[in-house]
Task: inverse folding
């Protein structure tokens, strides 16, 4: 959940089995998860962004640990905040906090 007061845009992913949950191309052996957050001032056409990522993890049948990633922007921002999470070539907008 986005914490606007703290400027914290977290991603929390429960433990999962990569082989069961990630559709990967042939020859895949490893993966990582990358997330990004942005504070966008549409009127002045400026933005602040932050990203975070996991270490390179094995794409196998073992359960991962819980994944917690945090992206930091300006605390108490009056601008819209966006949080996205992607893996491989996929991208999902997972949360938006407007004002």
Result:
């Amino acid at each position: 959940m986005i914490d606007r007061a703290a400027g914290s845009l977290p991603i929390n992913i429960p433990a999962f089995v990569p082989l069961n949950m990630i559709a990967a191309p042939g020859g895949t052996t490893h993966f990582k998860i990358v997330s990004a957050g942005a504070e966008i001032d549409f009127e002045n056409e400026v933005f602040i962004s932050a990203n975070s990522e996991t270490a390179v993890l094995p794409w196998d049948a073992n359960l991962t640990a819980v994944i917690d990633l945090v992206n930091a922007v300006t605390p108490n921002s009056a601008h819209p905040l966006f949080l996205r999470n992607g893996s491989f070539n996929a991208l999902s907008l997972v949360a938006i906090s407007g004002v």
Q: What stands out?
A: The chain has a mean pLDDT of 88. The first strand starts at residue 8 and ends at 13.
